[in-house]
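Please review the protein record below. Let me know how this chain folds according to its tokens.
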Amino acid sequence: MGGDLLPHEKLEVWQVAKSLAKRIYEITARFSKEERFGLVDQMRRAGVSVMSNLAEGCGRTNARDQAHFSQIAFGSLLELDAQLQLALDLSFLTVSDYQEARQSLSSS
């Protein structure tokens, strides 16, 4: 990326959420092909939703709208945690990948 940063790019929480979304893509790329339209898509959408809603909220001009999008992002973060737990229980995910992702969740 070059030039000036957009407002959301300056937020540390958005930067962490972006890294988390990227990591979710990397982790889910190793899931079985039969999960492509199941848990993989759900996890990827939730990960992208966190960073997207933080960005959208940053573009809002009043605090109430900003808070609303932050709440949606937090809900997506919790959704992603539930999906990570299920992926771990189904052995789609290693314990170390789960712990790494979980650490990122608590940093967001």
Remarks:
- The helical segments are 12-28, 39-58, 63-89, 95-107.
- Residues 83 and 101 are 11 Å apart (CA to CA).
- The mean pLDDT is 92.
- The chain has one domain: 9-107.
